[in-house]
């Protein structure tokens, strides 16, 4: 349970991928993250009031950080025939 309006993540990752699935109102700041041969993919935030700020600092080497909303229908079961 997150009880504050800011969540700080200190990242030290090598050769991996981190995917953050966010909902509207969650803003992810990667400005202080050091990248070495790495990639950051972040989708634009929806027009919603900011509920939570996630600040990611640290270092990522040979990796990937993806920030996106969950896919539509995520978690739903498909009907069986």
Q: Could you spell the SSE succession in H and E letters?
A: EEEEEE
Number of separate helices: 0
Number of DSSP-assigned strands: 6
Mean pLDDT reading: 87
Distance between the termini: 38 Å
Anisotropy-based shape: globular
The biggest sheet amounts to: 3 strands, parallel
Alpha-beta classification: mainly beta
Radius of gyration from CA coordinates: 15 Å
* Portion of residues within helices: under 10%
Which ranges are low-confidence, i.e. pLDDT below 50, for 5 or more consecutive residues? none
Strand order of the largest sheet: 1-5-3
The fraction of residues assigned to DSSP E strands is: over 45%
How would you sum up this structure, described in words?
By secondary structure, the protein is mainly β. It has no helices and 6 strands. The strands form 2 sheets. A 3-stranded parallel beta sheet has the order 1-5-3, with no helix packed on it.
List keywords for this structure.
81 residues, mainly beta, three-stranded parallel sheet, 6 strands, 0% helix
């Amino acid at each position: 349970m997150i009880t504050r309006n800011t969540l700080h993540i200190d990242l030290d990752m090598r050769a991996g991928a981190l995917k953050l699935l966010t909902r509207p109102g969650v803003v992810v700041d990667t400005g202080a993250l050091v990248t070495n041969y790495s990639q950051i993919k972040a989708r634009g935030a929806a027009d919603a009031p900011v509920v939570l700020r996630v600040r990611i600092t640290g270092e990522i080497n040979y990796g990937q950080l993806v920030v996106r909303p969950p896919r539509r229908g995520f978690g739903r079961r498909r009907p069986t025939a």
